User: Fold these one by one.
Assistant:
Number 1:
Amino acid sequence: MTDTGLIAKYNIPGPRYTSYPTVPYWNVPQWEADQWCELIRVSQHDDRSKRLALYIHLPYCDSLCTFCGCHKHITTNHAVEKRYIDAVLREWELLSASLDKGSLIHELHLGGGTPTFFAPEELNRLIDGIRNLFPFTPEAELSFEAHPNSTSFEHLQALHRQGFRRVSFGIQDYDQVVQKAIHRVQSFELVTACHQMAKNVGFNAISHDLVYGLPKQTLAGFQDTVQRTLELKPERISLYSYAHVPWIKGTGQRGYSESDLPEPNLKREIYELSKQLLVANGYLEIGMDHFALPDDSLAKATREKKLHRNFMGYTPNASNLLIGLGMSAISECTFGFAQNEKTTERYLQLIESDRLPITRGHHMSAMDVEIRRHILNLMCHFETELPKDTLLSRLELELQLSELVSDGLVAWDGDTIRVLPKGIPFVRNCCMAFDAYLKDQHAVKRFSMTI
Ligand code: SF4
């Protein structure tokens, strides 16, 4: 079958698998705080789960980018910063009572929203407060997302002093027509200045996040974006597929029409051309949508088969316990998931009344645990092995994978299921064959398209 034929056949709504089960199928509508804390306690049974990954969601942004799929709160009132940081620190204090006293923080990521919306002094106060309760491991990776329009020398200096060495700049696309359509205007000159400033301060792991499939995007325009990115040679480049889900994300993604989006073949062409350029310039393709220079920690983790994936995306640090702090943040432990309240005011009110702000989540069954492992293996290493005592029905799995196998995208060899090079763009479709929850077609339609 031609590439065009494959895209027409397999470009269907499907999850990105930053979790399994995916959020629409979670089975706990409202966690009791005690139940969730108990689940965390029993999950910390081994050394790996005593090395925590911490994600802190900082939701405020000065201005709305219309393509945005994040949980954010748009405001220009910076008086909100102090109350929010107080709340996150209080949440950390409340949660820490359930953590093993020997826990260490092995990974910390500040995401958003816009972490650089906050003043450097507030970010300092946040990290000091986190460190006061549990120490970092000596090799811990501390990273943050930076908006080039609001990142100052003082931000970079403060976070570098706190031990941060990785910064991810949100770039998306340098084409001014696209920037206007997504309401996010930032020049290459500004990004270059920020990038250089970060290097001068001592950041040695810089990521640039690009997005393909955005409205008004063209092959030539995006090629130019990739070329400019290569001029700066960041250690890591994320090449995210734009997820068009206006029915979930509200008005933000309605600032343009469907006809402004590149059609699926063009979208794939943009990815493939970008990949060729990046690989020709020494980057290695990692997982589904990342590229890294050979010395980057993500490239090393891939070589050593230690690559992991969670709500933060791909990470070199596999921890069994991810604690999410802040509005909308998601936590994951061996046996389940929990998400925080998704409106800022409600999150703040709950914390201020000394209650954990958790809402819905999932309690994993043994079958969920096995399928999560296969999906993680496929998303990170493009292969997985069925254990002798698998809980899955081989017959049913064979049936679900049969078309991918006959189209030459997947090979099944003994107990090993492998995504073939031609099948890599369709890895989400392969994971869907394992997914035991995708029977509710109404819910499936809520996901973005797989290509
Ligand atoms: S893309 Fe980033 S800066 Fe823009 S609205 Fe979304 S979270 Fe805020």
Note: The CA atoms of residues 4 and 145 lie 35 Å apart.
Number 2:
Amino acid sequence: MAHSNLSLLGRLLAWLLGTTAASSAAIGVVVVSGRHLDAVVVIALITAISILSAAVLLLIMRRYFLAPLKDLMRVSNQVTSTDDIKLRAPKYKSDELGRVVDAFNAMLDRVEKRETELTAERDRATQALQQSEAMTEEAQRTMHKLEFEVQVRQRIERKLTDFQNYLNAIINSMPSTLIAVDAHLLVTQWNQEASRLSGTRSDQALGLPLADAFPLLGEHHDLVQQALSEQSLQSRHNLQLTLPDDQRVRLNLVIYPLQQTEAHGAVIRLDDITEQFRLEEVMVQTEKMMSVGGLAAGMAHEINNPLGAIVQNAQNVQRRLDPTLKKNRETATGLELDLERFQAYLQAREVPRFLNNITESGLRASRIVTNMLQFSRASGHQLHPYPIGQLLEQAINIAVNDYNLKAGYTDHNLFVDQDFRAPEIEVPCVMTELEQVLLNLLKNAAQAIRERFETLNDIDEGIIQIHQYLDGDDCVIEVSDNGAGMSEATRKRLFEPFFTTKEVGVGTGLGLSVSFFIITAHHYGHMSVESEPGQGSRFMLRLPLQLPETETSEASAH
Ligand SMILES: Nc1ncnc2c1ncn2[C@@H]1O[C@H](COP(=O)(O)OP(=O)(O)OP(=O)(O)O)[C@@H](O)[C@H]1O
Ligand SMILES: [Mg+2]
């Protein structure tokens, strides 16, 4: 660049020298040819020529040097003031100045290109910004929509939870055991009664295989599988199961296949019929007892008179054979009969023994008949309120002393444990009859304990517990023992008249049947028993404190 500037200056000087030499030659010509002209004219001429040359020089400089620069300056200023980068400096020649102009224009080109690029970039950025704003707006709209949907969903979920709780409350308050299982026999629903029977809590049971959650069902699990595969209802009645707490229950089992198209499963329902079964048994027993009892009472009534005659006549015969009686001696003397020899004859033929047998058997039969007379529906005695604690104490005392409850217990201990919760309560009763019931129960308990000592011999001491309490309007008396207990067959028949498992002569089999009648027919109460072989027995008496209308009106009429 410096080199090109120097050559430009050189050429300018050469051109000036050339012009000056030509002017000098012209002046020389003037001087030579115009020797006559004075110096002033010459000087003026020279000056004029010089001025002219300078003007020409100036013109030339202006034309070739200053004008392009000026244009360059102008375009540059215009670009600066107007920001119009489309402007370009005009190029006059392809010399150094022309190249400066080219460089300037090239710079403007680049600036313009950069500007264009920047504008495009800015447009893109603006577009992206607008897009992102639109997207933000869209996102906000979606957010609001989602928020609304979440709220709706939450409301629905709350409603569903409420409904689920409501359903659970219904299912839980049902007295039946309700269990739902899916197609793989995994538990999906479990109510409170299911927890009570199985001992498995609902939160433990849900999701467990049925066999683990309710092992009690045992072999009946196959029935659930069958209900599922055949899509048919399955049922079993009167199943006898032992609960984890050793309680024995009777259950009805029904398995329903679930009526849902998308989900297979089954609902298992178990109804505890233990109490119902017991009540039915009691009712059947009561019915049976009433008819058998009525018959027995009728018979007893009929037998009572001839039996009385037999006993009375036998006793009369005994009396009339008694040699110590004055009347007998007088009669014998009147008939000239040797009473001493006659007595010897009777003794030799064992007549007094036979007569004794007749009397004793007659008296025994008469005791049985008296018992049987209790089988009539009405006792014939009026019920009077009596403090139950006192009555129980008296019965225990009689049993311990008179009945010799502890007879044969020299090697073993027998305890009578009493727990009276409301002894002051006055129960309407025939005191002697109720006492008789308690004596029967205590005697049976002592005999059952002795039987256990003699057979199983697996207890250290015999315990008879008498528990008395109030339950609503009833006074309840429970007599339990840890004796031999009884089989189901015995339990079903023990209230039947003359049913006994004891040896002939030990028991008549009337104790409980008479007791049953006294409690149910005479006292409007209930009597029941729970017992297992080798597990002892528990007898329950339930006596109403309020008598039925008929009894109270009868009582006031007397
Ligand atoms: N506490 C008991 N434990 C076990 N078995 C009993 C108990 N009480 C009664 N039994 C059974 O019931 C049967 C009937 O009893 P119930 O009192 O009616 O007659 P009994 O005791 O055999 O004769 P009785 O009472 O006339 O002496 C008894 O033979 C016995 O098998
Ligand atoms: Mg008895």
Note: The CA atoms of residues 93 and 99 lie 8 Å apart.
Number 3:
Amino acid sequence: MIAPFTVTPQVFEQHLGALREERYKCVTFSELLDSLAAHTISSRTAVITFDDGYKDFADNALPVLQAHDYPSTLYLTTGFLAGGKLHHKESGPSDLMLDWAQLPELVASGTEIGAHSHSHPQLDTLTAAQLHRETHLPKELLENVLGVRVRSFAYPHGYNGPRVQRFIKNAGYDSAAGVRNAFTHSSDDRFNVARLMLQSHHSLETFRNWLRGLEAPPATRGEAMRTKLWRDYRRGKAIVRRQPGSDYQ
Ligand SMILES: [Zn+2]
């Protein structure tokens, strides 16, 4: 199921080589937001992010990143991580996931750790109590283990909206990554920063074109009408599944 969202280490190496050839500087997600706020951003700045917390980040991606001396930001679904029985385990693809015990060394390697919810739901269909748990709990668990502030959140499936963003801000995150398949820019929404989702069908040529600002649009502010309609549809299905009198708000 995740095959469309994977590339081989050899292809990843080609991508990082292209970033270097095009003279890109790579920073973490929070560093990008900090330099945007300070107006010190260079136009050739890229952020490499990974969602979910699969084990092959440490086995395959990190060695290639380190060879290029590029940092990245890793968004973890805390309920899916292996080990750490005290960490409110959810059922998930645990055999493929990173282990809690590996996280300190990832931080030491320069990887920024962000949160990607606790159980990977469609956040914009949840009740207030569920939404509170999915945004607050991963931050608390990660900060307890890492001893550093977890500043950024990535929306599972990219789904968010004004209500979800309120919970993100309230939990203490200062940025959030969406999907949107567009280029982010200085006036992008810091609680729904656009990302380009690299998939296995993308050619190296497409990747190189992205680095030249081609083959994807700049991010627009606000939600498209079809995004709102699609959320209403998914939320309608979620409410039908819930008991009457739930605390959806
Ligand atoms: Zn995800």
Note: The chain has a mean pLDDT of 90.
Number 4:
Amino acid sequence: MRERLIRRIETGGSMPFDVYMEMCLYDAEDGFFAAGPVRSGKKGDFVTSPEITWAFGYCVGEWVDDNLPSAHAALIEIGPGSGTLLREIIAPWTDAGDPVYAVERSAASRAFHEQRFPTATVVAAIDDIPRGIDAVIVANEVLDNMPAALACRIEAGWVEIAVGVEGDELVLVEIPARPGVIEWCDNVFGEVPSGTTVSAQLAVSGWIRRVFDHFGTVAMCLIDYGGTSEELIERHASSIVRTYRRHQDGLDWLQHPGDTDITVDVNVTGVLKLIARAGRNARLLSQHDFLLEYGLVELIADTTHQEQHSASTGAIMAQLEHRSERLDLEALIDPAGLGAFQVILVE
Ligand SMILES: C[S@@+](CC[C@H](N)C(=O)[O-])C[C@H]1O[C@@H](n2cnc3c(N)ncnc32)[C@H](O)[C@@H]1O
């Protein structure tokens, strides 16, 4: 992958960061998601909420249940990864014989879902789903993996940060910003101080537009880490791009193209603007508040009760099991971790 990137940059010129990210993650031969095994899960490279406890899927299922756009609407999960969330929410569709789609860019993951979910149709993109149908769409930690450009504000306007070559090393370089990047930054960030670096999430915007264009009535639950434009400007600079491999962060994405996950904080201001432009209302809340609203309060109370009961009867093993379950439930709403994720609900 490294050599291929270097050759491509030497012949085609510096590569905007979104093009680099696209290749690192989804290149058919060597992309992190496209070529590798299923990445999420305790044995994979990162653990997501549905991998921690079934309760995450239970709560998302409660939301789905409350927000069906119509009877027989399709259930669509975008980027199911290992399929753990879909497994928790698919049963009512299978029982009713209603359509389910797993939309997954990764060929490795698609092959896996075809075996695992015989009642679902597994496709590579929403364009492969019949147009005009009503759908309830869920996506957990997917938007952050959609390729984003990097832009830096200078006195004269925006420049892009791209990947170039120096000797036989991949290095960061500045290039003139493409018109689409300038428009996105002006629209989503407006005026920012000179020296501010941001990600321009054109792929996320394109995907949101396609959703509203493609389907009939949609309900949508998008969960990811991110923040508003104001929050991201405060947060960013060094941490604008993150990597994950084997549960560790920090692997250098310039040194290890294709070997590591590359993610960016999702700009919820950009997403909310597009939802509003489609004439729909959205609710923005933290994962903490979302899960408590959709059933986690009761699950934590039940588990705590069982833990206390086991303790009072001297059933040590059961007590430990319930304690471990309770800690998993609490991890989902930890304000310093998963609980701070953003949930965008189109209801
Ligand atoms: C971080 S993983 C999350 C997996 C799973 N949702 C979970 O919570 O464990 C992101 C997944 O989204 C997929 N993906 C990224 N962009 C996509 C897109 N536009 N359409 C469908 N899948 C996508 C990737 O291939 C990858 O499997």
Note: The pocket of S-adenosylmethionine is lined by residues 33, 40, 48, 50-51, 78-82, 85, 103-106, 109, 140-142, 145-146, 207 (CB under 6 Å).
